[in-house]
Every structure is written in C-alpha cells, then in structure tokens.
C-alpha cells in the first residue's frame, strides 16, 4: 500500500495514548565532525569543533569566512550533488536494519526536511533530491514527502511520519534532514543579513558559523519491531509543530508564543510527575533565538528539570539548519546509550526563520 505523507497542519492534537507506539530503531549522520551518528555524537560530547576557513570566500573585513564544512567533500562539489553526498550516506546508515532483511515485506516511506528557499540553493532542490532518493533506493520506499521549512523541517517531517506510523498506515519511515550553507551566494546573503559570525569591524560577533550536515532516523511502529525482533533505541512520546508570526527580519519582537504552543503539544504525553532532563536545540549564538527560548521556558518550566541546561551543538558543527532535528534526536538517543544522559526523558526543538517551529519528546533507552 502506498501512503501519501502530506504536509501536516500545524497544532494538531497528538494521537491518543492507545495509538500504536513509535520507536527509533537506527540512526545515521554525516557532519563536519563525524561521518556517522555515533562518531558525530562523540565529537560533540568532547567539544570538538569543525570550524575552519572557507577556501576562497572572504568577508567585508577582508578576512576568510569561517565555516564548518564536511572535510571529505571537495569544495568544488556544489549544488544538488553536494546535498546528495551529505544525505545518502546518512540514509544508508539508518536503513541498515531494513536492508539486512530484504525478504521482509514492509510498508516503508521517507520524509525529508530541507532548507527553505534562499539565495544559493540549487534549483528545484526538493524535486531533485526526491528523484535521487527514488533512483538509489528503487523499490524501497512506497511513499515520499519533503518539507522545505529550514531548521524545523526535520521535526515537521518527524511529525508527519510519526502520525502515519501511530495510525498503522506505515510499518517504518526514514526521517532525514540535510542542509549546506557554504555556497558562495548563500554566504554573501548571510553577511548581507548581518548573520555571518565574524570579528571584523563590519561583521557580527553575534552571528553564526554556517555549517552543513545530514541526519537521519529510522522510525518503526511497535508491531513491525516485534515482527522483526529488533531492539529499539528510544520511543517517540510526542511531536509538536507550530508557527511564530513574530519572526526575525521583521519589525516585531518575538516573545516565544509559537514555540510555547509547540512545546506544550510535544510535552502533552510526558508522564505525570516526570521532568525532561536533557534538551537539544538549534540555538546558534543569535540573540533572538535565546530570547525566544527564554520566554518559552518561563511558560513551560514545570516540565523541565533545568531548562537552562541545554546542548546546542552548533558550537561544534555550525548551524546545520534543516539537518538539525534528526541530528539532535540522534544526540539525545546516543547520550542514553552511552550513559551520560541525565535522565530518561529528552527533548529537542528547532526554530525556522520562516516561522515554523518543531519539538519532540523522547523516552531514551539508558544503559547501566
């Protein structure tokens, strides 16, 4: 059966608790600090950065632009080819449990989180990456969807996939996100918008380091996991999406209303008396993101152990935009598997410049 993954409407109520449980079974990643999810998580845990000078781009102060790029990719690899080179290895890793069982008849889909339109993006990137996935994984996926929503895109894709799985309309779904900020036109645009981090007199010390990466997670519903006798890494307890009308690059002040609503939806299934202990987010040094989170924390503080104690891996692999959600899910899960999570409940969130907001609550498997 082919199931269409449509763009989810914002602010739906999460499925009832008696819906099919949804689990994360496998992870994949390719980042400036690692070529798989586990090596990338180890680098973030150790505080290793992938920052360096762009080979030829200079800022308005005459200094080389600082970026976080995948060191194994040639700088001459551009356009959709670069996105593909980041994305497909991450998907390959997440698909390992499926590819190891080719005889199994599973209803599988793929949902992609992709960048929102901006200068420097390849033409028709959504269609091109979907086409390349179909070509490489011919016959594997019965449905595909893409969500060009920037930072929150991967979590919006996670929301759509989890709903289909919870309703039993899919057995499994790969949720992947990919982005790359290092194209010359994109870097020039970031600097013109006063978002490029730099120390020169004409640059913004509160900007961000442009990065590039891909992340992926394999989701499966409980019945399929039991059938394949797999050992899940985490359970997705809730996903929230929302929209913030008071956005960056507008003459408004964001007080976190959209993110607050998104948090509340995702946190609705947090067990009574429990608190979130681990938070992963896409804060990148820009003040408006910190302000938005601060207002949101004030309204939802009862759900968190210490909301101010968060991990923002942009300080290691740069701002990776649409790849953020799946990568942060991976970091949260690996922290449990490696015994450095503070507790069993982890939370990830992301904010897009276009106003889209996404968040997810996870119950991670912890080792003793």
TrEMBL record:
Domain spans labelled Beta-ketoacyl synthase-like N-terminal: 140-222
GO molecular function per UniProt: acyltransferase activity
Domain of life: Bacteria
InterPro entries reported in the protein's UniProt record: Ketoacyl_synth_N, Thiolase-like
Pfam families membership: ketoacyl-synt
Protein name: 3-oxoacyl-(Acyl carrier protein) synthase
Taxonomic source organism: Candidatus Accumulibacter adjunctus
Lineage per the UniProt record: Bacteria, Pseudomonadati, Pseudomonadota, Betaproteobacteria, Candidatus Accumulibacter
